[in-house]
Amino acid sequence: MPELPRPEAALPAGAAVRFEDGALRLTLATEIYSIGAILRSCYWLTDKCYVHLFPADDGHVEVTLLAKGGESSETSTIAWELLNSLVDNQLRVSIQQETAAVREMIVAQAFSDVDVIDDRGRAVRQGGAPDVDQQAITTWRPVP
Amino acid sequence: MATSSLSEGKVVLHHTLYNEDCLKAACEAYRKFAAVSVERGDGYSTIAMTPAPGAPDPATLRREFLNYVLDLSIKNHLAP
Predict the structure, then answer these.
(1) In chain A, what are the domain boundaries?
(2) Of the given ranges (A29-38, A108-117, B16-25, B59-68), which has the lowest mean pLDDT?
(3) Using CA atoms, how far apart are residues A67 and A47, in angstroms rounded to an integer?
(4) Among A11, A56, A122, B73, which is disulfide-ready with A15 (CB 3.0 to 4.6 Å)?
(5) Which fold has domain A7-100?
(6) What does the alpha-carbon distance between residue A92 and residue A37 come to, in Å, rounded to a whole number?
(7) How many CB pairs below 8 A link A and B?
(8) Which domains are assigned to chain B?
(9) What gap in Å lies between CA B28 and CA B72, rounded to an integer?
């Protein structure tokens, strides 16, 4: 497998900064990657590297990474993994947000005694009393 | 070239990213290995650690602490 380029050389200027201890700092825009996605991605890397998160002033989060082995090249590989993982996790977060209402409705239906969605998956109007046949209530009918 | 925040003596943890309760729990857990001092600022805490005898070197201890508190914060963030 060909060696990956160093993130500080390949990414836009300022997006990745290398330090003398071999650590790499990535600056991520929260407009693109939510805090939830950043946290999830970092969580999966804590077995391979040390991570420090710091909020920058202008809607950015700085993620500083250092491979546990201390190797600069290993840190670079982990940084590329993090960037791919961020895309994956951001997509999951977006899908979760987009489908939240549907999932809530399905769970509500599963635990409900009455229908909250109809046969076609449309929400049934809640709060309104069902139509009542007044005559049926007042007219006595003997049980056959 | 400067050193990274992972190699500095004190580390700043913002409460927007690191939950304050998780930070307290992590400090409590690490008191076995180090003297942990916490300075609270407006929305952040500054952590300094002095390792106990026999504990790993200060940089490793600090980095392991960072991963530990991040782990707790993420679990807290993802909890329903």
Answers:
(1) 7-100
(2) A108-117
(3) 9
(4) A11
(5) Alpha-Beta Plaits (3.30.70)
(6) 8
(7) 72
(8) 10-78 (3.30.70)
(9) 13
